[in-house]
């Protein structure tokens, strides 16, 4: 089954060209099936790039998935055409009365700010509180994972001495956990962040479990025991060239930036980077949709209760 998105959305053409099964609204409306309703709160500056990345992995499922793209009203992206935002995005106040099977909150390049200093923090708090009663399972990515752990459980973030930047090996702590089922004992994932959360703080919260971590990159996947809240501290959704683009962007700005670790062959930026996380990304996103959302969300979506 395909992912259901408007045919005018840039991701439709991108994914179609990759031979990924996407379906436009007209065709989907002729099928007698309830699609999963997934909202994506896109906090990334380059929203079209983030859409392509996330929708690519949400398409790897036998389920029909209906996407609602959401942006903040308290801060408008300066890196995405306003015409694109007006056409494809909703504000939170436009969806607050709806219920969703799943919600994805993306990362954002604001981790060196205190949470309360972020321009849209009050709005994000409202959305995260709303998600407890209007969303069955919420997936928080990178900075959003830190924001979610802080908002829901008071877990702090810590500034790193240098940016955690590269592709790192991770281990699965519980091979029977639904979210990590099918992952290799050791798998890879990209990280790009200036802050971290720590195991000792998470372990104080009985409701949380650490499903995956890395000796070098630290805690990676955290989930509540009912999988209603998922926190991933890295960027499984990244494309092959995303870290490379970030590296050259910062170099051109004259910023001090190290070559991403374990990314370019022989640490040579002139070579095509190795994408060692694609399979793991497909597994984690598919597991979230299937086990954390589809297998447990009420068929009558209005029956979703507080988490």
Automatic annotation (TrEMBL):
InterPro entries: Class_I_gatase-like (IPR029062), HST_MetA (IPR005697), MetA_family (IPR033752). SUPFAM superfamilies: Class I glutamine amidotransferase-like. Keywords: Acyltransferase, Amino-acid biosynthesis, Cytoplasm, Methionine biosynthesis, Transferase. Its EC number is 2.3.1.31. The keyword Protein transport does not apply. Substrate binds at residues 163, 192, 249. Its main location: cytoplasm. The active site is at residues 142, 235, 237. The record marks 111 as: Important for acyl-CoA specificity. One of its GO terms (molecular function) is homoserine O-succinyltransferase activity. Belongs to the MetA family. This is Homoserine O-acetyltransferase. The gene is metA.
């Amino acid at each position: 089954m395909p992912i259901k998105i408007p045919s005018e959305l840039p991701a439709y053409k991108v994914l179609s060209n990759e031979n990924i099964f996407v379906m436009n609204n007209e065709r989907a409306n002729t099928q007698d099936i309830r699609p999963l309703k997934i909202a994506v709160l896109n906090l990334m500056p380059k929203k079209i790039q983030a859409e392509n990345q996330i929708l690519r992995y949400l398409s790897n499922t036998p389920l029909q998935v209906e996407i609602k793209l959401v942006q903040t009203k308290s801060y408008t992206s300066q890196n995405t055409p306003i015409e694109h935002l007006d056409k494809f995005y909703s504000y939170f106040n436009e969806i607050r009365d709806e219920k969703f099977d799943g919600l994805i909150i993306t990362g954002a390049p604001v981790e060196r700010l205190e949470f309360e200093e972020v321009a849209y923090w009050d709005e994000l708090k409202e959305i995260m509180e709303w998600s407890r009663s209007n969303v069955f399972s919420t997936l928080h990515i990178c900075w959003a994972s830190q924001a979610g752990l802080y908002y829901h459980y008071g877990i702090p973030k810590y500034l790193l001495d240098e940016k955690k930047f590269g592709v790192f090996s991770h281990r699965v702590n519980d091979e029977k956990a639904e979210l990590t089922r099918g992952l290799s004992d050791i798998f890879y994932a990209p990280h790009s962040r200036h802050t971290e959360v720590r195991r000792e703080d998470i372990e104080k919260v009985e409701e949380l479990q650490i499903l995956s971590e890395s000796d070098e990159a630290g805690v990676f996947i955290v989930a509540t025991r009912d999988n209603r809240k998922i926190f991933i501290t890295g960027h499984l959704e990244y494309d092959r060239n995303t870290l490379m683009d970030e590296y050259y962007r910062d170099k051109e700005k004259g910023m001090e930036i190290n070559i991403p670790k374990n990314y370019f062959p022989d640490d040579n930026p002139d070579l095509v980077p190795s994408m060692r996380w694609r399979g793991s990304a497909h597994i984690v996103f598919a597991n979230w949709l299937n086990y954390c959302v589809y297998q447990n969300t009420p068929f009558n979506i209005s029956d979703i209760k507080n988490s």
